[in-house]
Amino acid sequence: MNPDLHTQRVSINGASGGKESKQASPEPPKTGQRQNRSSVGSLSPKPVADESGRFDKKQRKRARRRKAGKNSGAEGVLPGAQGTPPSAERNLAGSDTATGQRSARADHNSGNGTPKGENKSGQKNGQKNGKKLSNRRRRSRRKKTQDNPATVQGAVTATAAQPAIQPQPAKHGHAAQTTHRHNHRSAPAKADHNHHNAGDHRAPQAAQPRAYEPPLYAALDLGTNNCRLLIATPSRPGQFRVVDSFSRIVRLGEGFGTSGRLSEPAMNRAIEALKVCRDKLESKNIRRRRLIATEACRSASNGPEFLQRVREEAGLELEIVDRQTEASLAVSGCGTLVNRETDALVLFDIGGGSSEIALIDVTCRRSSRLAEHITAWTSLPVGVVTLAEKFGGRDVTPENYAEMVAYVAAMLNDFSERHKLGELAQSTHFHLLGTSGTVTTLAGIHLGLERYDRRRVDGMWMGSQDVTDMTTKLLSWDFKTRVANPCIGADRADLVLAGCAILDAIRQIWPSERLLVADRGLREGILTELMSRDGAWRHRRPHQAKETYIKNGSGRDTQIKGRQSI
């Protein structure tokens, strides 16, 4: 036994009845003086017993801290490494049991491994802002630590950075049990415990709201000359934003004017284009779609056979529309271009195999659907492909051109309701509206575009003299010059003058000083009808659609005054 640490005891037989008497111990440290702590591995001041044979309370506290490895970052140091002899531990084990229990409970409640009197935030006596930290708040903090993975991860990281606490051997019953309980509830061990059970105690998170996906609508128009697809989503009431589009010249009606049948090469070209459209449709979640075929499939004798090939090879079901439906869809596609100052107009769509003409009176209460204001309509069984095959479109002379104009004008004279607009057709608030490749080509040449730009053409105005000048210029060009023009190209070089002849015949019946050019048509009309019937604008959620608009970053080019096509 260490004589410096323990008090000498002398037994006096008979005088004390066998009881031990204690000698005076060295003078205890003065009250209020704090003894300096030694660093790890150095010898600490030896505890000295008082007169009653018990050690000073502060000395017992320091011994417990050394024993728990809390003194100056001495985690992982075995008992005795700080200069505390094993005999001191035995004396500590035999000290006041109640005092040890209170100290252990105080250490446990003050931050799970933090020195007595301090909590995790370094505040004294378990207080926060001058108030005692209640058990309810401790449980709340513990729950937050369990619910917050970032906090748990930070605690686990801190645990990995700290050296492990070495297990201490149990000595003398209760003192060893108190030490074991204290080490088990230390902060690193608690964090590790929460980390392993985070999935069991974490509160279920609320399901994230799904991002609003605007509905998609598709329209396909297989005409005599072109195959066109348009996929769009509704935006403002009466308008939509283009998501995807496709257009290819297939010349399905090639040779139809002379034979009355669709040729094999023409059908093959059309089916290849329809396969591209099928892939685009299958790659998107389309809510409503309408796929139509017009004059070539409507009038050809082998039209049903071609549609069966389309079902088998392209997997698409095409709908053959009549002439009245075709005229109505063309009007619906141009509804947003008509301004409020207009009283009446004649809308025409010059196609490849037919030309639709509609007389529109908007002096009455104006509806959102322009097709409801149609007062008369007609469909001419002639288009740019059939007229060019009949009169020739490659080498066109002024005489040949005059014959084409007279041929179309005779058909218009058979239209009995051509004067139904009456005096409205003579007013200054009357104009023509053309939606076809012919008028857009004339507009591009008039603007002198080096490359066709739909944004500049769609919605522009041309005067009557401007149209006449462009037609005269085209008649003066030979075939190679028309091919070299970027607004015409090789696909339209032999068709553009036939379209100009149909336009001049319309201008003779309904003369007007103004012509409104529209780069839109049946596809836009189909989309307008689909969205209107589906209530896309009535049930649309504007705030969510606005968020989608910002997130997708669509530009002004794709959302301007009305329905768009590319």
From TrEMBL:
Residues 190-203 have a biased composition (Basic and acidic residues). It comes from Pseudochrobactrum kiredjianiae. Residues 149-170 have a biased composition (Low complexity). Residues 1-208, 541-566 are annotated as: Disordered. This is Ppx/GppA phosphatase family protein. Transmembrane segments: none annotated. Residues 32-42, 555-566 have a biased composition (Polar residues). Gene3D superfamilies: 3.30.420.40, Exopolyphosphatase. Domain 2. Pfam families: Ppx-GppA (PF02541). CDD domains: ASKHA_NBD_AaPPX-GppA_MtPPX2-like. Residues 57-69, 129-144, 171-187 have a biased composition (Basic residues). Residues 236-532 form the Ppx/GppA phosphatase N-terminal domain.
